[in-house]
Amino acid sequence: MPFRPRSVHAYLLDTPGGWVLVDGGLGTDEAWSALDAGVREAAGAWAAVRLHVVTHMHMDHVGLSRRARDASGARVAMGRLDAERMAHAAAHPAEEAEYRRAMLRRCGAPAAWIDAVEGQRAEAQPLAPPVEADLALDGDGGELPGAPGWRFVWTPGHTAGHVSLHRPADGVVVAGDAVLARITPTLGVNRQRADPVGDYLEALLRLEALAPSRVLPGHGEPPEDGPGRLRELRRAAEEETETVGALLAEAPRTAWEVVEARYAGRDLPDAARLLALRETLAHLDRRAAAGRAAIETRDGVDGFVRRRDGEGERGASTPEHTPHG
Ligand SMILES: [Zn+2]
């Protein structure tokens, strides 16, 4: 990939129902050549691939899906919320753009900066042509249709509809970006789920309950100790809520200002700042929902105010499905 992380994994699962391709790569000719060579080497021909599972709708995972489907005739399966998000974005691009802009305005991002990141986004768009899912994987988990011996597990957080795959016979988990060995997967505010941080903590518990023998990530080397890495990621997400909360004060601070303080002295490229904003806002929202921060809204911009634990306690809101219209 022309940006970090430099590579993404695609996996081929050999099942009695035929080969299953998990993820693909960025929609470039270079990435296609690599995927094409790998599929031919392992499965013999594209026609042997009967199912294509996309762990989540990010461009580095879904960018080659349309080409993979055209080459193989395989059905495309995605988590329900990501399938819906992708279909909605393809059908209503202007409305999607307005949602993103409003979310960034809510963070306190300057208008010129929002224009710049939207411009970069438009430039990157051809790297991920949208693909329609033939199969929407719904619920906390279940059998993976057409792939005997494999189950899917709903592992939201990185995206609302992220799914991982699990082979109970030997405990192998193909985790997508739910688990990475050296970096923590980014979480982010989205319009489909109220508490992406809470979602992610539950997803990690769901994976921990499987006591996986091996966890295969979307990027980089597999963690040496899968269950240990799951616990580490859970602690890191919980700590981040505290770190972000410690940057609040009596006077309202926007997510933009919290990110400035959180990464003080570090040069954040726009793409990294965007991820940091969405993630920081998710942690701030989580604190507010638990009564540990107050929100003061002015002209569509949310300022967060510190609240001592217990003060104005409302209790954590119950995460629920909030699909977009
Ligand atoms: Zn990724």
Structure classification: alpha/beta
Order of helices and strands: EEHEHHEHHHEEEEEHEHHHEE
Number of E strands: 12
Mean pLDDT: 94
How many angstroms separate the termini? 34 Å
Outline, from the CA principal axes? globular
The CATH homologous superfamily of the largest domain is named: Ribonuclease Z/Hydroxyacylglutathione hydrolase-like
Share of residues in helices: 25-40%
Q: Give the number of domains.
A: 2
What name does CATH use for the topology of the largest domain?
Metallo-beta-lactamase, Chain A
Extract low-pLDDT stretches: 313-325
Tell me about this structure.
The protein is α/β, with parallel strands linked by helices. It has two domains: 11-237, Metallo-beta-lactamase, Chain A (4-Layer Sandwich), CATH 3.60.15; 243-306, Arc Repressor Mutant, subunit A (Orthogonal Bundle), CATH 1.10.10. 40% of the residues lie in helices and 18% in strands. It is built from ten helices and twelve strands. The strands form three sheets. A five-stranded mixed beta sheet has the order 1-2-3-4-5. Strands 6-7-8-9-10 form a five-stranded mixed beta sheet, with helices on one face. The protein has a two-stranded antiparallel sheet with strand order 11-12. The model is unreliable at 313-325 (pLDDT under 50). The structure holds zinc ion (ZN). Zinc ion (ZN) binds next to helix 2.
Helix and strand topology:
Layout lengths: L10 E5 L2 E5 L6 H15 L5 E6 L4 H4 L2 H8 L2 E5 H12 L1 H14 L4 H14 L10 E3 L3 E3 L7 E4 L8 E5 L4 E5 L19 H13 L5 E4 L8 H21 L8 H8 L7 H20 L3 E6 L2 E6 L19
Parallel strand pairs: 2-3, 3-4, 4-5, 9-10
Antiparallel strand pairs: 1-2, 6-7, 7-8, 8-9, 11-12
This protein binds zinc ion (ZN).
